[in-house]
Structures
1.
Amino acid sequence: MINRQSRNRSIVFMAVITASFAVVGTRFWYLQVKEGSHYEALAQADTLRKLPIPAPRGNIVTADGKVVATSKPSWTLYYLANGQNMPSSELTLLGKELGESPAYLSQLISKQIAQLPPYDPVVITSGLTASEMTNIEENINELPNLRIQPIAVRYYPYGNLMGNIIGYTQRINAQEYQQLKNKGFSMTSIVGAAGLEYEYNQYLHGHAGGEYAEVNRQGQLVKLLSRSGPTPGDTLHLTINWRLEETAQNSLAYVMKAMRHSTVGFSHSAGAVQGAVIAMNPNNGDILAMASLPTYNPNKLLPTNPKEYSSYYNKLATSPLAKMGISPFIDEAISGWFAPGSVFKPIMAVAALASGVITPTTEIYDPGYFPKDRAFGNWYAPGFGWLNVEQALGLSDDVFFYTLGYDMGINTMDKWMRKFLLNKPTHIDLPGEITSQIPTPARLAASGQGPWTWGWNLNTVIGQGIARYTLIALARADAAIANGGTLYWPHLVSEITTPSGKVVKKFNPVVQGKINLPYSIWHAVHQGMDMSAQDPDIAKGVSGTGYGALAGLPVPVASKTGTAQVVGQSNNYNAFFLTYGPMPHPQILILVYIREGNWGADSGFVARAIYDQYFKIQDPKAQPLFDSVFGLNWKWPYSYQKPAAPKY
């Protein structure tokens, strides 16, 4: 009885076990065979993904310690796109929270998806406000593929001051990525697009960090696994002095405005809307200040804010200046081409003295016109009579230099232009430099204006004709006159350091050329330029041409003015002003250009403003001089003011 009951129980138990295995086996077959591929895909969809954390770009710091480019934290909204655009319902909701149209957001996302590697997050916007972040977080269930993350974005504390020298940034493009991918750059990198940001991009870039996360096939964050912090970029230390830079740009704008509003005849010019200025140390090539107007505010060209970028760029591209062919993205100091007028005469004076055409005591008679052709008249119609080279430079006498050009001929002038490297770029550490074009018979013939005649020699020697020079090339050449023959590499960066201060690279002066001449030649040119700046009566009661802007300056300086006819415009003249000091051992050279500035001396007030700061001059004589030139009751705001005492 017991054995039969035990046997019956065993049979039932075995039946239950068999049935259970049958159920499990059937389910196993269903999962592994019938639906195996589906569930395998689900398992494989959970994957590791690196969410990049961009590195803060390195700082850019002036010689006197002002940080002119840095990075600041900004809350950035990412979309984990997984190769797919955002569903329309989510686009509508997100657009409402951000104040953007769904169409704009869709286009923004699609463009980045097409450019980025698969699974890389798409940047929607940076600079989220507290209320925007709160609203997005409250709706995160309806916006499951969004992620808010703080990143470092570029910030320029002084806006458009020095804007087109510093430059701006942009997202890396495919071509740049191919060139830079082996140097720590990714498809999400921000790179320099212009100015110093572009020139020193590899140093400024830094190395991105990232968060390693488990993300499901919908792109939703499952779990954060680890985080690696970014490494900031290196710091650029500039040769530029911030106070001089600020003065250079502001005074250039101020003087151009004075020209446009002037009530005094020849000092008035409605076309004075573009200009540039370079201040450099002639003894080593350090750029102490450089400004080009118009300029732009790089804070409005951030790639992390594409809507503002587009709006601001379009505004600049369609401005009244743009319609005149004037762009803030062109740095006139290195990318403008000019016939410089009489600021070219010191170089030609050196050429004539060095080639033996004249000596420092040679005198040439000026009757008011060139004797071989009265069409070549002097700017001072009565003529100055007998002049030596020093007086001719001080008065910017045209007839004296016409004679030099006629006697030297183009071959001799060409030889000396090449010695001053005017046919070579300076290789300044900025992108966009163009190479000057010295005048030659071959160039003239190619332009269809040939053949070369002696009349072209006369145009060449006074900085007119077919010659086209950049300001930076002229500044390098003129610095060689100031220092006695050495052509230095012009540069803006003195050294590069890590964020901790370790020196990565140091830039020492580089000699690009040497002109070995007797001291007497340099001295004669210096004396003539001294007279231009300081002598109130060189001949016939006429002062030096630079005296009208520099009279009363308590520091001995040299100068040369230039008034160059605008090509194709018989009544418009560009203004140039060259000066250096203190004499006899110059420490700073300044070269100014103002489009349609008419009389070259008037642009000298920009140089005077820079001198006031450099030499710490409290300059009461500038105000009445400025008023008399422009006829305006405007304050002269550039006299040196001692910094306020610190408050404790």
Note: The chain has a mean pLDDT of 89.
2.
Amino acid sequence: MTPQTLKRDDAPCAGTAVDPVTLTVIEKGLQHVCTEMDLVHEKTSFSPIISEGYDRANGIYHRQDGRMIAQGELGLPIFLGQLAVTTNTVIQSRNDLADGDIVVMNDPYLGGSHLMDVRMVRPFFYKGRLWAYLSNVGHWRDTGGSVPGGFATKSTEIHQEGLRIPPIKLVKAGRIEDDVLQLILNNIRVPNDSLGDVKAQIAALGAGAKRLTSLLDRYGEEVVDKAISELEVRSERLMRSHIETIPDGTWRAAAEVDSDGIVNAPLTIHVNVEVAGSDIRVNFQGSSEPCAGPLNTVWATTLSAVYIALKHVFPDVPMNAGCFRPITVEKPRGTFLYAEYPRPTAGSAAEVSQRIIEAILLALAPAIPDKIFAPPAGTSGNLCLGGVDPETGETYVMYYFSGGGYGGWYDGDGISNGCATIGISKSQPVEVLEQRYPIIFDHYSLRDGSGGAGKFRGGLGVAYRMKLLRGTAAASFMMDHGRQGPPGTLGGQPGSPNEIVVSRGGTAEIPEHLSKGEGYVLRPGDWIDVKTPGGGGYGDPSDRDPGLAEDDGKRGYL
């Protein structure tokens, strides 16, 4: 079942409204619970991808069906719809959960994305009664599979990508099930660091339980329940009022993924956005069929991508289940946007999701030009490196993602070196990576001239070169927009495409699939050069203020 089809039995009744002040305090209190979980998760994780890059999310989900009550402001947006589906999966599949239990899972087909996004769900009990679920997700640097880091671009089935975990108890009555833990850690290249990440997720859920208990102690179950129902109603009402500003009709567009890593040909996403009053219906009829490689995308990720696109357009709508009720997404069965077992999914969350968002933005641009922006870089720039450091004798796995340019918008230029459209994460500091791994960054800078021209230009991507210092290492990367850069909107020009060059033994080469590749064995002195896309331009370049162009020249942007 999905959040769209689940029965709701807690609609607010007449005469039960919570006063506005209390309602606001409870709303912020629920958000604060989630944010504190985010911070505990971040500060206690061993992996830089979480402690420095913030690739995680925490939330509170409804006891009945797993729909979202609140998610932390510091959590990645791509997990918006995913964790609701994850939690619903646990509700449907586990009727044996008690206070102090925690379920772990990463199965992409059961509300996930790729295997590296590992989820935990804890039933939260208040005064002996199940009151809600606390759920979180963190990107683990490795879950086994054919390449370090999990971004195998040549995988043709899920089993080649790593350890697939169904909803199983990791913690029972407050104690970690050691057999389960050892089974997981024995399938990971960096078990010691991963153990730290496991305990960080458990600690975050514990912090959430403590803070949510305090909130209920202060205001009482009945008042908080009523507030949650009222907040859902208000969020739905605000989203509907925004949708009503979009002219009725069906708005269409398409976006392309470079390739699936196996067949060197684009995959196409066709989107139809049907607006009728305060309702939106989205379908992907005509999109490419399921692909051979790891760019298939599971339903939870496709759903989340649609939600993110509309939240980018209407950012002021509070985050809870009511925000999504006016939005219906038809399941794109028979396409690569609805992956089923055993299709590989490594690139779904970080790459294909951003093409979905791009297609929706392009579709809505003619309808609401004063609320839209041109497509951003649209790739997370996933780069993985794994090996044994001869200086320490320890196995390492490094996962790195980088920023790119945001698209120009109706009132200004795009952001340079912005995070991926699906996240609020940041690139890990190169100084931290150089301390932990046998690498050095020869240079790291904004990519001159990469933003698409327009009345308002796109933001700039970044350019960097990473060199191996000692030992040997296996490199893989999964990016996108290598065939063509992010398109412009309403007359704007496209941003520069993604570029990758790998140099081994003094010979430089461009990967066959441009933005995707694996099997690169690096030795000391070998390097990988990456240039990320700039954002698309907004509007006719001839309408650009000459003063803005002059300022770009002074700053060295062009």
Note: The longest helix spans residues 191-219.
3.
Amino acid sequence: MSRPVPIRRALISVSDKTGLIDFARKLDARGIEILSTGGSAKSLREAGLTVVDVADVTGFPEMMDGRVKTLHPAVHGGLLALRDNAEHLAAMEAHGIGPIDLLVVNLYPFEETAAKGAGYDDCIENIDIGGPAMIRAAAKNHGFVTVIVDVQDYDALLAELDANDDRTTLAFRQRQAQIAYARTAAYDAAVSTWLAGAIGDETPRRRAFAGTLSQPLRYGENPHQGAAFYVTGENRPGVATARQWQGKELSYNNINDTDAAFELVAEFDPAEGPACAIIKHANPCGVARGDSALDAYKRAFDCDRTSAFGGIIALNGTLDGATAEEIAKIFTEVVIAPDADEDAKRIFAAKKNLRLLTTGGLPDPQAPGLAFRQVAGGFLVQGRDNGHVGLPDLKVVSDRQPDDRELADMLFAWTVAKHVKSNAIVYAKDRATVGIGAGQMSRVDSTRIGRRKSEDMAEALGLAQPLTVGAVVASDAFFPFADGIEALAQAGARAVIQPGGSMRDDEVIAAANRLGLAMVFTGQRHFRH
């Protein structure tokens, strides 16, 4: 089992025919007999290659619209037989089963079909049966059989054959078996996840997730932690699908923070104007709308210039040269946007440590989806926080009615608060954050931190008073006591948006009325741990 095994006979049945003809020709040149099925056999013959139909091997034609073609002992016996087992060899001889030394299979495009939103019947028809069965058989018998399930491994196999006189080593076959089982596991995970959604089962008895390696990472959150980035294939614009134009590889923390930044800025429809979000350690340190991308960036930057250093910047539209020139004045880890013009790319080209990513679009903040997090012994699964609140959803609970400017700013602040770690407090004025308190154990502390940051920026900008004066405030969850309301009133805030729902709502509303604040309830909270 440990010695190199020669490849004399291969079975090829692929949905993705990228590189197939060149690969098969190189196998044929080595004198390897090729068995094949359906469209693969047709493509190979049209290229002038000699191919044996699996139907001729099994004695049965393909039937039932191709659902049954390889599920036969002549195929699975050839894959599963132990070449050093006398009984297996005798059975092969008795039943005319020839060994299959190489299996090359990639599966029906179920993931792609489901991602396109195809109908139920189309998705069902794109569930591969024979392919996974053969893959698992060949992978189990990796002591003697080589299995290839990814187009990108064609060259690796050919290099292995070149290095070992048309043989494969056990180490190579073991690696390919691991890849094969991971592929069938990912495939089944995709099918089961889709089917749970199709039948409306939010808590299926078993839940599986899978990903494909995008890149190994130098380390994780800290240098002593190994890490890698895997992608699910979800068709959602973001860091996983972006094109990187320059700069060194993204780190674990870069990827996490860039995702947070882009998901936040996508909340702001570009049809309603440019927006910019600056993120540090997965929390926003400045978010703003503006008359231009440059204006939005400057206003976001002025919320907390200190924290913005070494941060992640996300835009909801095209990055232009003027904005790039302003961003380039400080050290920034990553800039991500749907697109970037040539002036912006040229300006950033001089900043070798800055990564520029473009995505071609924005993710839909209201689209459904799943989010999961590991805990000891298991993982938590929940729906993506796609909650949205508009003007009709707001309930004014204070004596003072908010004016139109305050309502617009409250909705802006509420949108930002959704992306701030709890306990979250966001001060905003004129569609820009002016103070953010994040991740505190006490909501009062978050209120005070947001105020202090605004005071520091007022001093840095030479302002007569902090921008929290006259601002609105968003709280991601209800105020449990009136002390939070009193703290934000001391900061000069004039209006509050919060979910409501506390046992002491009456006390909190009374405090708002006593302090002359307008207050609205959303009936929806946005905890983010």
Note: The radius of gyration is 30 Å.
4.
Amino acid sequence: MRNLSEKGIRHKYLRLTFSSLLICSLLIAGIYFYMNKQQEEQLVEYTELLEKQEKLKELSGSLNQLFFRIRGFYSFQNERELGLAYAELNKLKDTVEGMNRLSLTAEEREPIADLSAFLETYESEVLPNSIAAVRAEDYARLRQLSRDGTNAAVNEFVAFADEYETTSEAGLRQLNEDILNDAENFAFVLTLLFVLLFVVIALIILRALNDIVKPLEGMRESIEGFVGGGEVAYKPLARSDELGVLSMTFHNMIQTIRENQEELTTQNQALLLNKGELQAKQAELEESLEETEKAKERLIRYNDLNHILSFTLDKQKLADATLRYFKDAYEIDSGVLWLPKTGEFALEGFTEDMFLQFRDERTPYLTERLKGRESFVMQREAHHEKGIAMGKVYISDLYASVKNEAQENIALIGLSRVGRTFSKEEELDISGLLNRIHLAIDRIQLYDAAIHERTLNERIINNINEGIQFISKNGNMVQRNQTMYTMLDCGDVPLDANIEQEIWIHAMAEQTTAPEAMLAFLRKCIDGKNFTSNAFQYTVNEPYERVIDVYSTSVVVDKEKTGTIFVHRDVTREREVDKMKSELVSTVSHELRTPLSSVLGFTELLLNKQLKPEKQERYLKTIYKEARRLTNLINDFLDLQRMESGNQVYRMDKLSMSEMIIETAEKFRTQMTHPIVLIDDASDVIVEGDRERLAQVLMNLIGNAIKFSPQGGNVAISLRNDSKNLHVSIQDQGIGIPAEDISKLFSKFQRIDNSSRRKIGGTGLGLAICQEIIQKHDGTIWIESEEGQGTAIHFELPLLSETVEYTNHEGTEGNPPVMIVEDDMSLALLLSEELKQNGFKVIYHTSPQEAFKEAKRSPLVGAVVDIMLGEELSGWDLVDMMKKDAETKDIPIVISSALDPVADVQKITKISHYLTKPYAPVDLSKVMKKLLDGQHESGVIFYPEKEPVLDGDN
């Protein structure tokens, strides 16, 4: 075996192939490395020659540049040229050192050494002597130094550099040519090697064809001749390899086949004799198999139908499946199955129009024929159905019905065969199946009725206002209605999910304010021994506070408790109504009796006693104040009643909210401890509303801000535009509101139950009335507050449609602020509108003291001050205060006054501008724009319709 392997075709050709490839690879590798080494040596030589050439060029250029700079110094005695010459000299020495580091020949080193010696002599002797001669203006000595050989040495080196450049260029060209020739030789050698490799491979292939393919073709020809029945004279190969063994085996096989051919022929004749008998048995087996397959298919179809009859709840699906079974099992050509009670039908070989005609025309006849019997068969002659058949063709029709207990037809079926009749066995089978259909239809009808009742009950239970739970005997919650989900958090589970006792009672108890009491109540109710009804009231805080009454009752069947029903009823509204009634009685009794007592008491004093006039006046003012208080209380009650009944009439008109706010703020000017600040940052303040109602809102909100700031403090009113709305904020520095009570404040008669607010008093109707008015104007109102930090009440009103698309020059938050200190409301409004149109935010004050505080708080562009402000302080007092304070002294001040500025000429230097009334508002805008741009002036006076005429410094 080992000898065969060593002499085998595979071993021989592998050895030949590997030897050829190895020899070619070694030749290619040797040539490649030789050529690569040659190219590297040439490249190194080329690089060195090129570097020498570049260095010599650099030396020649630096030398020329050195003497150029020296000659410049000789000619003009320019020290800068001398400095550049020294720089070139250093550069030249560095280049000489770099040249010496290269691999130079003896001939190349000699001129470099001469140049180096020359540079040392030149730097140490010639150059210093030349510089001294130039500075001494001894040009004869300078010429003598030049004639001493300096120029000759330089010229010799330049000539050497030029000659070397010429020689190196020729050397570089020769190297390039040598590299190109070597590359061409390398390519030629590689081509020869590839040709040699191709020839070797071709020889190997030819050898393989001769050694392998030719013997195989001889064996193939012998096999074809043997199969064709001809004489075969095959001579085996005299070889010891695989083909020789195969050839000998093939020769032995042919000999063996020849020897056994007669025996095989005899056996074949015997087989032919038994072929007929085997074919007959095969036909019988095929018929049996076909019958078995048909029986299997019928059984499968019957099982499918039986499954549908047993489990389906869809009548249409039932009808389709039944008719399909009849078609497949009994090979019907057309049929119909109809459920008259519910209208479902299935068709085979019918159209819907044909069915409608059959239903309308044939139903009375069939109903009459099927009275007292389950089915019948009739025959009729075929017309269109017989097709191309010659002679008469008959159709067999089978009709059957399914009846309920009242002997009403709940299903009718008609089946037809063309050219074949129905046997008695088939008729009985069909009748048996129709009885099963009866049971299936009854089952579906019972299920539909149960589903209908269940759906109806669920809809009734889910739509009542009480939450309902059904608890099973073991304490698990098995059913609840939709109201329970809205009333309590029952988890994200279906309404009929089964929840274990401990889970649902703890989840429900934890939502209440008294979990332990709720747990005790629930456990008591679901106790199997407790048959009584129970009631309990609990409170839930999330998502808002609610009070819920829960009732439980036991479900008893055959004197045994099978479960418990809980009914939860939300009584929060009833509790609130009761509380509101109590608060109304308490508020009315307190708020009405207090002013009435004052009125009656002071009236009795006036009637029964002789009082001094000033005391009488004081008492009468008190009576008047309390009477006004009573009037306001009664008006609040009446307004609320009209609003709730829908009888409040709103007279809508075009209004300026900034004007209304200033008018309202003027009414509170006497509140010395509560200065009102107006911050107007709205470019559009025109809304549509009822002036009287909106004024009522402003009076109420500003009054509340003052009332609930007993320690005093500013009341800031801000206006700004927010999208398509006007946003108004009223901020006080009062006692504030607890966070948990803010949501309750808009409720009627709602007052915060703490000591500080009880002392202030009130009916709790003001904010409810304000909310109603704002909502009727398509607006919104809300509160932001922190206890002890003051309160901000905000409301928004929609702007008029023609002014919705406003332009805010600098943005809502970035508008530069300007303070107006003016007691003339009309002028203040006029100036405010002018400044806002030019992109300024306006802060309005009437009090000099508060204006001074504002100037310290806000980074103002400027302050517009009227001189005639009040009795205590004038506008000039405010100017003095601001100029003396380090924080406000740099704020530009513009005086707006009707007084003659000449009377105050000494004070004019403290201000920027003096506007004499009446002046055009645009003059103020121009001044503020200059101030915004940093163009500060001092004491410029504007007269009406004139240009500036006087400077305070003159």
Note: The radius of gyration is 60 Å.
